[in-house]
Amino acid sequence: MPKYAEFQTFREQNLITDADGDMLHREARALALRRIEESARTEEDFKEVIRWWDKLDANRERKERDHEKGRSVIPLEWESDGQYLSDRPSYDTVLKRLMLAGDFLDFIFDQPETLHELVTDADLSEILKELKPHLKNMIYYLFLHDYSAAEYAESIGQSDRNIRGIRETALKKIRKLYGDALAYRKENNLPMTLDEKYFLENGVRKKRTDGKEDKKKNQTT
Predict the structure, then answer these.
(1) Does the pTM exceed 0.70?
(2) Residues 190 and 105 in one domain
(3) Containing domain of residue 20, as a range?
(4) Which pLDDT band holds residue 221 (cuts at 50, 70, 90)?
(5) Helix runs in the chain, H state only
(6) Are residues 32 and 108 in the same domain?
(7) What CA–CA distance (Å, rounded) separates 128 from 57?
(8) Which of 41, 76, 140, 203 is the most exposed place for a label (fewest CB within 10 A)?
(9) Is 141 inside any structural domain?
């Protein structure tokens, strides 16, 4: 049905009259449908009500399809390489899984210049955003893509020792700035997670242990 085509039909059937005054199309349609429903008495009348609702549902579904993502009926993970279905995914594997799920945001920001867009904490994001380009590049490859200091040093033509020194300096700077941001939150009674409180008190991230290690530790204590 062409856009607003039912409006003319409503007028022809006197469901909308000049006495109703000016109104938006959706208001006129709602009024006309209400009058159709309220005037229904016989089986044929109710069939007419259902016909109108089916017609309007078909229009709504057509509009929704216009905004849906085009997808093949074949699953995107069909015949995927085994590494993408691993139980111990790397950063690249996580990106691949997100893409398979139709979530491309992290993939779009997967580059050194937009490193700060990959973290959810606003303070940490601002700290990373203000880093110099060569530090962003180093953090991106060392911590997201798991390059060793030697591998990264070779890729940019520097020594392993030099990269390790720059890395430690950059981490100290980030920890100092992030610690200051957390201290500000604490002083102003702003919400903090347990991990953030641990970092503020100890200056390092809390180490994670898997369930097997926790179970073993509980058995020995």
Answers:
(1) no
(2) yes
(3) 5-67
(4) very low
(5) 5-12, 25-39, 43-67, 91-100, 105-108, 122-129, 133-139, 149-156, 160-187, 194-202, 211-220
(6) no
(7) 49
(8) 41
(9) yes
